[in-house]
Amino acid sequence: MNILAIESSCDETAAAVVRDGRTVLSSVIASQVEEHRLYGGVVPEIASRRHAEAIVPVVSQALKQASMTLNDIDAIAVTYAPGLIGALLVGVNFAKGLSMATGIPLIPTHHLRSHIASNYISNQELKPPFLCLVVSGGHSHIVMVEDYTKMKIIGRTRDDAAGEAFDKAARTMGMPYPGGIMLDKVAEDGDPHAFKLPRPVVHDAPYDFSFSGLKTAVINLIHNTAQKGGEVNKADVCASFRYAVVNCLSANFLKAAEDLNVNRLVIAGGVSANSLLRRTLEEECLRRGWQFFKPDKSLCGDNAAMVGSQGYYEYLSGNTADANLNAFATMSIENIHA
Ligand code: KG4
Ligand code: ZN
User: Fold this and answer.
1) Which of 14, 68, 247, 289 lies 20 to 30 Å from 47, alpha-carbon distance?
2) 89 and 140 belong to one structural domain
3) What are the pocket residues of ligand 1 if the criterion is a CB atom closer than 6 Å to any ligand atom?
4) Residues 166-181 pLDDT 10s
5) At 31, which CATH number?
């Protein structure tokens, strides 16, 4: 089954053709990041306009790269939640129009479920059930993936998402948006024990995260040093901050796996590209004799290949939509509805 997939939830316009949920025949991503960088973050109005400009060429390119026409496509999967509403609407309306004009079935796809599915492409042998740490710019969840379309949230952030905390800390150090990637690189040359940063815990919710206190602590550290006329060693700050965030993420994730008796662990989302997070979980799982899966770095960020993968499993479970499909800025990964 060939699925044409479309993604426009944030600042990447993407399209892909994916066969049977696992084989990527083409994948095209038009990133707007350079433009949003001027403003230090995504400007929703600009994002919607750029999606409107890019969607036709990006979809055409994806079909061309796969050496296909719409006649070869069996279904159209589109991200309909969660994300920036104006951005999502561009992809959803385009997909609806295409589906109505051609009669090709339409599959609504949840963005975070798609991030998880990036692992089905990178790890062909991976099948549910497993426990997944989904860490992106907008979300930080520990999710029990009982089946391809059956999920239960075990833990979540109470305030900032991990990616958001990385980006804000990086911004304070003058790194361009989205700073998480650069912070990760700079951290490689620093001492993770140079600065003592807090490890916030959420009482009575051992699997939940809280990153806002940690983010404030690192921002204060930088500002206080600057006020005294000094300058912190950036590599050391990056390394200490990254170490603290990864500690919090991996400690709760490993504890949840132990308590739930699950020994197949998976990571997904933009922050799953973080080198220390990947190394730490790889080592911890190896030590325990557990399985550990991660997406290729090229599939960690927003793309449409992952949408084509999850879309396949949504289709198999009977999740299709008609011309009434709408977009939603928020939606739980557990209870999706079209
Ligand atoms: O999943 P994603 O591409 O978009 C959302 O759905 O939010 O995640 C983007 C987030 C950004 O906050 C970015 O800074 C972060 O992922 N990120 C990283 C790394 N690469 C991307 N954070 C830490 N280390 C990285 N290597
Ligand atoms: Zn994403």
Assistant:
1) 68
2) no
3) 10, 115, 136-138, 163, 166-167, 178, 180-181, 184, 269-271, 273-274, 301-302
4) 999 999 999 999 999 9
5) 3.30.420.40
